[in-house]
Design brief:
Shape: elongated
Number of helices: 5
Order of helices and strands: HHHHH
Number of strands: 0
Helix content: over 70%
Largest sheet: none
Strand content: under 5%
Distance between the termini: 33 Å
Number of domains: 1
């Protein structure tokens, strides 16, 4: 069936958040902070990757233009989640709480 756009955007946010937490927890303190500070670039990087792939396939260029508003919405949802994951990890480290969310709720 069809998934409502709002549900899909929420899923992208949650997946981005989980990815941000996982990536930040593997990083050291300074790298974690750099990930957080550079997170506003994530939507641009993701969109550039998609466009570069589509550019190699002329048959899809028109479809990209049609899908672009939705694509941007979902990319922004992912990026917001990823940034939130970085921020929550930085926050936990600053408070001295090394437990990951999954370990806290286990």
């Amino acid at each position: 069936g069809t998934v409502p756009a709002e549900s899909f955007a929420h899923q992208r946010y949650l997946h981005g958040h989980a990815y941000g937490i996982e990536r930040a927890e593997r990083a050291g303190g300074l790298r974690n902070l750099l990930l957080l500070l550079s997170s506003p670039l994530v939507p641009l990087v993701l969109l550039a990757r998609i466009i570069s792939r589509i550019a190699k396939r002329p048959a899809y260029r028109g479809k990209l233009l049609i899908a672009l508003p939705w694509l941007v919405r979902f990319i922004l949802a992912w990026a917001g989640g990823e940034a939130g994951g970085y921020a929550s990890t930085v926050g936990r480290r600053l408070r001295g709480d090394a437990a990951t969310p999954s370990k806290r709720h286990a």
